[in-house]
Write the C-alpha cells for this entry.
Amino acid sequence: MINLLVTGSNGQLGREIRDLSSEYDSFHFFFTDIEELDITNKTALQSYIEGKDIRYLINCAAYTNVDQAEENEDTAQLINAVAVKNLAELASNNNIIPIHISTDYVFSGENFKPYTETDSTNPQGSYGRTKLQGEELLKETTPNHIIIRTSWLYSPFGKNFLKTMIQLGKNKTELEVIADQIGTPTYAYDLAKSILKIISHIEKDNNFKDYGTYHFSNEGVCSWYDFAQEIQLSAGNKCKISAIESKDFHCLAKRPHYSVLNKSKIKHIFDLEIPHWRTSMKHCIHRMNN
Ligand SMILES: NC(=O)c1ccc[n+]([C@@H]2O[C@H](COP(=O)([O-])OP(=O)(O)OC[C@H]3O[C@@H](n4cnc5c(N)ncnc54)[C@H](OP(=O)(O)O)[C@@H]3O)[C@@H](O)[C@H]2O)c1
C-alpha cells in the first residue's frame, strides 16, 4: 500500500482526488484541509505524518483569491510560499515526494505561443508572485519534486467561473465577459486523474528521474468570452454573452493576456491523453445536472 497525504482537500482539486480515490486500490489516502492540518504550522505537519509512512504529498492547499491577494499579500505569501517551504522540508526530511500545484499566472502573458516549462516567468500580481516564490522554495529545498502549473481551474465544487456563469446565465438576459484574455480552462477532474496516473508511473519506474516542473491544462485555446458562450449553450441558458476588453472590467489584480500552457512534456513523460476543454466542460455540466 502506498500512503498519500492530500492537503487542502476540501478545495476544487482536492475534492476531485477524494472522489477518484476509491478507484485506486493500492493507494491509501490521508485527506486533510486547514482544520485537520494547517500547512503553515510546521510542528503540526511533522506530528501529523508520524507513523503514517507517507510516500507522496499532494499539495492542493493554496490562497487562490487572485484579487484579494493584492490586498493580502502577506497572507497569500504565508500559504503559497512559506508553507510550501514547510512542506518541502517535511518531504526532504522524510523521503516524501511532493506534488505541488502552481499556476499560469507566474507568466507575464506577453508570449505569442504556448508557454513551456523553461520560458521566463514574470508574474503580474501578488497571487502569481507568491505562487512563484512557492515553486522556487520547493525547488531549492527538495530536488525530487513535481510541480504542475495549471490554468483556469473549475469543477462542480467550490467557486469558479463555470459555476458563476451558469448561475448568472439562469437569471440574466445578457452578460459582459472579457474577450482579450486567452488561455485554456482545466477541469479539476482531469488534473486529479493525471496526478494519480503520474504517481502510478513513478511507482512503476524504479529508476524515475524526471522530477521537475510540468504544465497541465485541457487541450485547446479560448478566451473567457468563448468559454462563457459554450457554458451557456451547454447549460441550456438563453443568456446573451457580449465581449468586453479587460480595461473595461474593473478588478484589483492584473491578469496575463495570454497564458496558454504547452503540455508536450507532461503528455510525453507520463503518457497522458488530455481531453479538449469543450469535452471536459460538457462532462462537468453533465455531472452537475445529475
Ligand atoms: N482555481 C484556479 O483557477 C487555479 C488556476 C491555476 C492554478 N491553481 C492552483 O491549483 C491548486 C488547487 O486550486 P483549487 O482551485 O482547488 O483551490 P481551492 O478550491 O481554493 O482550495 C484550496 C484549499 O486549501 C485550503 N487551505 C487554505 N489555506 C490552508 C492552509 N493554511 N492549510 C491547509 N489548507 C488550506 C482552502 O481552505 P479555505 O477555503 O478554508 O481557505 C481550500 O480548501 C492551487 O495550488 C491553486 O493555486 C488554481
The chain has a mean pLDDT of 97.
